[in-house]
Design brief:
The chain is mainly alpha-helical. The radius of gyration is 12 Å and the shape is globular.
């Protein structure tokens, strides 16, 4: 999966959580929860939707790595890399 495909999946899963926001224009290093003003429950719902969309289970211990767009792209890119 390419980085642009991963980013598109992230944006698609964020859209229902923060419909007024434009996730594509987020600062890649900024904390997504703070930037989009979403609470922990909404962030968890986002992570569940993302896991389902990508067919990838994300352990709770790894949630901190998904706090920023850069973090998500790096983490998911590594986990979705063809073997």
């Amino acid at each position: 999966m390419t980085e642009s495909e991963i980013k598109a999946a992230i944006c698609a899963c964020l859209a229902p959580i923060a419909p007024e926001a434009d996730p594509a224009s987020l600062d890649p290093g900024a904390n997504i929860r703070e930037s989009l003003d979403i609470d922990s429950y909404d962030f968890l719902q986002f992570l569940i939707a993302l896991s389902q969309k990508l067919g990838l289970e994300v352990p709770e211990a790894d949630y901190a790595q998904l706090a920023t767009m850069n973090g998500m792209l790096a983490y998911l890119g590594q986990r979705l890399k063809p073997s």
